[in-house]
Design brief:
The complex is a heterotrimer of chains A (483), B (285) and C (323). Chain A has 483 residues and is of the alpha/beta class. Chain A is built from 21 helices and 17 strands. Chain A has two domains: 153 residues, Periplasmic binding protein-like II (D-Maltodextrin-Binding Protein, domain 2, 3-Layer(aba) Sandwich); 246 residues, D-Maltodextrin-Binding Protein, domain 2. Chain A is 44% helix and 14% strand. In chain A, strands 7, 10, 13, 14, 15 and 17 form a six-stranded mixed sheet that branches. In chain A, strands 2-1-3-16-6 form a five-stranded mixed sheet, with helices on one face. In chain A, strand 11 and strand 12 form a beta hairpin. In chain A, helix 3 packs antiparallel against helix 17. The longest helix of chain A has 23 residues. With 285 residues, chain B is an all-alpha fold. Chain B has two domains: 63 residues; 203 residues, Orthogonal Bundle (MetI-like fold). Helices cover 73% and strands 0% of the residues of chain B. Chain C has a two-stranded antiparallel ribbon. Chain C starts with 11 loop residues before the first helix and ends in a 6-residue tail after the last helix. In chain C, helix 1 crosses helix 15 and helix 2 crosses helix 15. In chain C, 64% of the residues lie in helices and 2% in strands. The longest helix of chain C is centred in the N-terminal third of the chain and has 36 residues. Classes of the chains: A alpha/beta (483), B mainly alpha (285), C mainly alpha (323). At the A-B interface, helix 1, strand 2, helix 4, helix 13 and helix 15 of A face helix 2, helix 4, helix 13 and helix 14 of B.
């Protein structure tokens, strides 16, 4: 009996090995016809017949279909052989790829800020000043160190609330919240949460629906805070990010982070978190799940799609990121909203998720064709490709171009229209203070603390003071990283 | 005739049985849950993760075809990952068992000047935690252009001193030298004696060490994570698939069912051999 | 170990051939050791006295990296997963491995040896965690603890310990969930470690027990010793060398332990950091982070002192029994 079993096992393993060999010669994902007319690409971008490059693209967020489409067109129009490799672990393995000769020629990824700075200063990636790209004003500073551009920022991802219109149509009006319309004011938002908790009492999948699902273990609340701060005090917000080393040396920069405007913004967040005492005497975020502080962004988005929350924190990438579930369940109740207004008279403001995905060209790439790589990047930065990118992903690019709203999905159109009427804030500058990473705010700890302690009007200021003290202690370390 | 146990023994045996049963049941539950979850749709699983018989044939086809066609890193599908794992495992096992066998044999059977030092050094390599040298090793591999290659990983595992080395010393020391002396009288050299007489006698320990190394290497995530990103193995690939399909777990489970099934089948088929070999291998500390 | 001497047939040539054989085959292991053990560790030590700037320029900083490492270890400078919990967590794995995991494994091996009911079934099923990838085990454990739909949480609710299913009343489940709450995350990971780690060495102990002389057990039984008594007074002393070896490897392994911390919390929980996690993730982010080198040297020095002392202690507990 055992012998027969062993024989069957050997047969199965042989079969699997054989299937493996056959399956390995799988279909090449890049082999399909171009989606739009290729026209005279050779005239504009050159004749690249017989030249190859490999592009490693992070397979998260905006995914890679738009990039495959671009490569197909470019290949058809110029004779090049550009292949796209979708790598889900790319940003974790960048250090290995840049150091070893097994990496790609071009990378589309996001990484910890200091990594590309290091690679640029160590001459491991090519300068990109000669691309001649027309960036949006706020993106012009991204990817530059010592006045040299090393990366081409590509995505321009507006963050915001994603809400369930079916639920909004059902929740009873309360205070400034009017049934059927997502609130436009911060008080209206708080009133809506109150109505959900006390008047509405909707149950689904055996649980009471909560107002908000959010990723406490990632940067979700950070988007809200920065959007509100930028809305309340756009000048002050920009001043914080534009700090120079002189500010720091004088140690007189505390008021750039801790001031009445940033305190007000963080206090708004604390009110949204609504810390509530549970039966054990512990505080939990009363407008969301008791374990929201440990959720990832995907978990939060999934709970929203399952109908367990009325709104969630995400951005323009939501539709692409959760595409599989949206398609499987044929979900169409989700809509986009910018941050509600705190002080009347403020302009609607959107925080742009930054640093975001960018392109860079490695010097140790397999094919060593930097000129082809640059030509391809120039093509991707064109107005036409920006429109195609937005049509695929719903996310605008970092380039200056006119959006073509009729090619967008309804959700993406909402985002595009919101962008047209809003001011935008970006957390970056080309100053060393920003590039060193020391200005980056901790996007988890302050919010987890605010969600799990009794509310007090002084809490926000205490958290900001804490952030400043950590920054102040780490400042010298960060500056040692520059010569 | 059934053995009669005293009351005390019976209680002891019942307690043993109960604790073991709790653990065993939890492991079987885990396996079954993983298999059944791979038969479910993404939507259904995200709402009710701990249902069992919510099977959909459409979902089975979708999940398993996804598991087979998804390319980790954009270039490596599940079948290719299995081949990578086999290459990594077979190469590592052969090298990491053969080289210590030779050095263990020499230290066990021959007297030479630095013998004592070598044995002490081998124990030192086991005793001193060298996790901190990973940065240096990483940069060294990069400098000799073997970072992110199979040969690099084999090189890392090609040491002759370590746990296996000490096992082989014990083992060969216990083999009588008379066999060798007879061969020497017939004109055989040291190398021939090793290959023809001593090496074959170590077969049980080769088999047992080989099987244990196979299983350890198959599940090794750490080495591919650091040194083999371009050639993902199953252990590393599962992690990558999980990070990509975090919101669509049934796809991940189908990949896991496949990879776990292979190792499980091997283990079930060879469990008796493993046990017998380990006993014969003389794993005395 | 026995000494080997063979009568030389033709004096020098046999000796010379033997020398070539011995040193020839030891050359590679020695070279490998010199490069990958001595070289790498000395390189690590030397580099720990320097820092690298963003542009790759190396500067001598003396003991500064060690001062940084100490600040982190002593809790004066926690930064993300580089924090003082890492050392405490790693050290806490030692008593867990020695006083919970190993005794449980020994009892399981003994139970199988003494053929308790279902021993053949246990011999296969109890070894499953060693065969199944850690990724699978971590994923299942995490999902099982999910507040909304996890099986463990459902069981807790069914027995009245998990609250009423609302966010307001969660029973013994802390805010953030077991894996998301700072005060319970490490304890939960330790539970995971027991659940999956008990059986890794089952096979070593089983095979050591299989070689024990039956006669001693038979005499003990005739003398009226219970099976429990036989376990403590006969079995354990007989396999003490195996126990010593395994426990030394367990203690040594705590310094590189990191996978569950990474996989169960996505590396986002600072309280779940370990030395292995700090160092490995540090390398992936920046291979020229020399504070990690300093940390590694400290781990090597204090870690080996700990392991050597432990080994000495184990050898003093009971004399080796020859059979």
């Amino acid at each position: 009996m055992k012998k027969t079993f062993k024989r069957i096992l050997v047969l199965c393993l042989t079969l699997i090995t054989a299937v493996s060999f056959v399956a390995c010669k799988g279909k090449n994902n890049d082999d399909t016809t171009p989606t739009i007319e290729v026209g005279s690409l050779k005239e504009t971008y050159g004749d690249w017949t017989g030249k190859s490059i490999e592009v490693g693209a992070l397979d998260k967020g905006v995914r890679v279909e738009w990039l495959r489409d671009a490569a197909r067109n470019f290949n058809a129009g110029t004779g090049s052989n550009i292949t796209i490799k979708a790598d889900e672990s790319l940003n974790e393995n960048l250090e290995t790829f840049i150091d070893a000769k097994t990496g790609y020629d071009v990378y589309f990824t996001f990484s910890a800020q200091h990594q590309w700075v290091r690679w640029g200063l160590q001459d491991k990636i090519y300068p990109l000043d000669d691309l001649g790209v027309n960036f949006k004003e706020t993106m012009e500073v991204c990817g530059v160190v010592n006045n040299v551009r090393y990366t081409m920022p590509y995505t321009y991802s507006p963050t915001g609330f994603i809400y369930n219109q079916n639920y909004i149509n059902d929740i009873p009006s309360n205070g400034e919240f009017v049934k059927g319309t997502f609130p436009k004011t911060w008080q209206g938002l708080l009133d809506m949460c109150d109505s959900i908790n006390t008047k509405w009492n909707k149950v689904t999948l055996g649980q009471k629906v909560v107002p908000l699902s959010w990723g406490g273990s990632v940067g979700d609340m950070g988007y809200v805070f920065e959007a509100l701060w930028g809305q309340i005090d756009p000048v002050g917000y920009k001043a914080y990010w534009g700090q120079t080393t002189e500010n720091v040396a004088g140690q007189n920069n505390k008021s750039l982070l801790v001031n009445e405007n940033s305190i007000q913004a963080l206090d708004c967040v604390a009110k949204l978190l609504n810390p509530t005492k549970n039966t054990n005497g512990q505080y939990y975020p009363g407008n969301s799940f008791s374990d929201s502080t440990s959720h990832s962004n995907l978990m939060a988005e999934q709970k929203f799609l399952n109908g367990l929350s009325v709104f969630t924190i995400s951005g323009s990438w939501f539709e692409t990121e959760m595409g599989e579930q949206i398609e499987d369940d044929e979900i169409d109740f989700y809509h986009y909203a910018t941050m509600p207004i705190v002080n009347s008279g403020s302009k609607e403001t959107i925080y742009i998720n930054s640093p975001a995905e960018y392109f860079m060209i490695a010097k140790n790439g397999k094919n060593n064709n930097p000129d082809l790589a640059k030509a391809f990047l120039k093509y991707l930065a064109s107005e036409e490709r920006s429109r195609v990118f937005q049509a695929y992903t719903g996310v605008p690019t970092a380039m200056e171009y006119r959006m073509q709203k009729d090619t967008l999905s309804p959700f993406a159109k909402e985002v595009a229209e919101a962008l047209e009427r809003s001011a935008q804030v970006v957390s970056a500058s080309d100053q060393k203070a920003s590039l060193s990473g020391v200005l980056n705010l901790n996007v988890t700890t302050p919010f987890i603390r605010l969600a799990t302690m009794a509310y007090s009007v002084d809490n926000a200021e205490a958290q900001l003071n804490d952030l400043y003290n950590t920054q102040y202690n780490d400042w010298n370390d960060y500056f040692k990283t520059f010569d | 005739m059934k053995k009669k146990f005293s009351a005390g023994d019976r209680i002891f045996r019942i307690i043993c049985f109960t604790i073991m049963m709790i653990f065993a049941v939890s492991y079987i539950f885990l396996l079954l849950w993983m298999v059944f979850s791979s038969f479910r749709s993404v939507s259904s699983f995200s709402k009710y993760p701990f249902r069992f018989f919510d099977i959909s044939f459409d979902a089975i086809a979708k999940n398993y075809s996804k598991a087979f066609t998804y390319k980790v890193g954009g270039h490596t599908s599940m079948p290719q990952m299995i081949l990578n794992s086999l290459a990594y495992v077979v190469g590592t096992v052969i090298i990491s068992v053969t080289i210590p066998a030779i050095s263990g044999y020499i230290v066990a059977k021959y007297k030479f000047a630095i013998r004592g030092i070598i044995t002490s050094l081998a124990i030192i390599t086991l005793v001193v935690p060298t996790i901190g040298s990973v940065t240096m090793t990483y940069r060294f591999m990069e400098s000799i252009h073997l970072l992110d290659t199979f040969w690099g990983v084999f090189l890392l595992n090609a040491g002759g001193f370590g746990f296996s080395f000490l096992l082989f010393i014990n083992f060969f020391a216990a083999i009588p030298w008379e066999y060798a002396e007879a061969a020497f009288l017939d004109g055989a050299g040291d190398f021939k004696v090793f290959i023809r007489i001593m090496f074959p006698q170590a077969t049980p320990i080769f088999v047992s060490l080989g099987i244990m190394s196979f299983i350890a290497c198959w599940n090794d995530y750490y080495t591919p994570y650091l040194y083999l990103n371009s050639h993902p193995t199953v252990a590393y690939g599962l992690m990558a698939i999980q990070s990509r399909y975090n919101a669509s777990m049934p796809y991940v489970f189908s990949a896991m069912v496949f990879s776990t099934g292979v190792v499980l089948a091997l283990y079930v088929a060879f469990s008796k051999t493993i046990m017998e070999s380990m006993s014969a291998g003389g794993l005395k500390g | 170990m026995s000494k080997q001497e063979t009568k030389a047939r033709s004096g020098l040539s046999v000796k010379a051939k033997r020398r070539i054989f011995v040193y020839g085959f030891l050359a590679w292991p020695i070279l490998h050791f010199l490069i990958f053990w001595v070289g790498m560790n000395i390189g690590t030590m030397i580099d720990s006295f320097y820092i690298y700037s963003n542009s790759g320029v190396r500067s001598f900083v003396g003991w500064e990296n060690y001062a940084e490492a100490f600040k982190i270890i002593l809790g004066q400078k926690d930064r993300g997963i580089m924090n003082h919990y890492a050392l405490l967590n790693s050290l806490s794995l030692i008593p867990l491995a020695l006083f919970i995991n190993m005794p449980l494994t020994l009892i399981f091996a003994y139970g199988i040896y003494k053929k308790v009911a279902g021993h053949a079934f246990f011999r296969i099923t109890l070894f499953l965690p060693s065969v199944i990838s850690t990724v699978v085990l971590c994923l299942v454990f995490r999902l099982a603890l999910d507040n909304s739909s996890g099986i463990i949480v459902m069981i807790l609710r069914a027995i009245g310990l998990g609250g009423d299913g609302s966010q307001f009343d969660t029973g013994i489940i802390p805010v953030g969930g077991f894996l998301g709450n700072d005060s319970t995350v490490w304890g939960t990971i330790l539970v995971f470690s027991v659940w999956t780690g008990v059986n890794g060495n089952l096979i070593y102990f089983s095979s050591a027990m299989a070689r024990m002389p039956q006669g001693i057990f038979e005499s003990a039984e005739i003398d009226g010793a219970s099976q429990l008594r036989q376990f403590v007074s006969v079995c354990i002393p007989l396999i003490w060398p195996t126990i010593t070896t395994i426990s030394v490897t367990l203690v040594a392994a705590v310094f590189s332990w990191m996978m569950p911390s990474l996989l169960l919390t996505d590396g986002t929980s600072e309280r779940a950091s370990t030395i292995g996690l700090m160092i490995t993730v540090g390398v992936k982010n920046d291979s020229k982070n020399t504070v990690i080198n300093a940390m590694g040297v400290l781990v090597a020095v204090f870690g080996s002192a700990l392991i050597l002392s432990f080994r000495y202690l184990m050898s003093k507990i009971t004399e080796e029994v020859e059979y």
